[in-house]
């Protein structure tokens, strides 16, 4: 770096420093956004290298979301745990359509017990600075940002009575915008009406006829806790009757492919055990070269359609000692 020697250079440098300090002081004086900025979401999901939405969330492909539906909770959990993500599962749900899996890209919302001064700041910031709806409750704001393929995930801190985040009106709005449903660490009202929305699904902690009161929205698309799981905006969710897994976007393709291969291995192993070709200990331990060759021959003559492309499968098998 060149030295600053002349009086004019020193003056310009001083002015630049003052301007920077003033700018930082002003930015620190601004109220915290209700909705996270794209820059913040990108920082949270920095390991994702693919396409993004305008709000900064990773845009995981629809094809991967569809393949994810066929992955078991145990397989998904195992892949994440092996990668060091041990707090991505939550169970103990009431499920509207328990036999239907739901996958999608997460939009998060955080709710807290009502505090009037904070609620006022949230409403002022949301309406005046962020252009959010001035009428109705703030529990409609997360719905306004949904797009097709999104799943609305909210931490309602487990509140059931007076903690109903939506009824059938908001449920219809959610499904119209996302073609998905909700996952709430909280409750809903008018479950009978919600059940009449064709295709809408919900993982909730309870339902109650009361309406929401003494609680407030505090953030949209910030990190939240759902039971024992930490959830980020842009995560991909796998929700089944056996529980819910929140998957970091940068791991979802690897998770899907790894789980699909594990499923094929299990199918092959079960078939060979039924045939009596191998002993259980041979299948449950690291395979011999003969079993590996048998598995590859079995894959080449697979009677159905493989869940992945042949290129994906070949590349995967090249890099792993199975």
TrEMBL record:
It comes from Algoriphagus halophytocola. InterPro entries: RraA/RraA-like, RraA/RraA-like_sf. This is RraA family protein. Residues 121-140 are annotated as: Disordered. It holds the Pfam family RraA-like. Gene3D superfamilies: Ribonuclease E inhibitor RraA/RraA-like. Residues 121-132 have a biased composition (Basic and acidic residues).
